[in-house]
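Bench notes, afternoon.
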Amino acid sequence: MIPKERIQQFLDPYDSSQTECDGMTRICHTLLTNHGIEHHPMIGVLFLHNQGIEPHFWIDLPSGERIDYRANTNSQ
């Protein structure tokens, strides 16, 4: 398994892109695929301040860690 610091190293530069969660998830999916890292793109609802934001996109890793730059809950 690749350390989370290594994953962050090639994903973080794209965090400043002008994309919403769907676009950022597509970027992350492409990069993770190109690096041969197993992952699962996800779609669902994000709850912030008792408000549901739908649809919301993110990536889950088999380790249980989550990549979600647009919710600012990045826990690679």
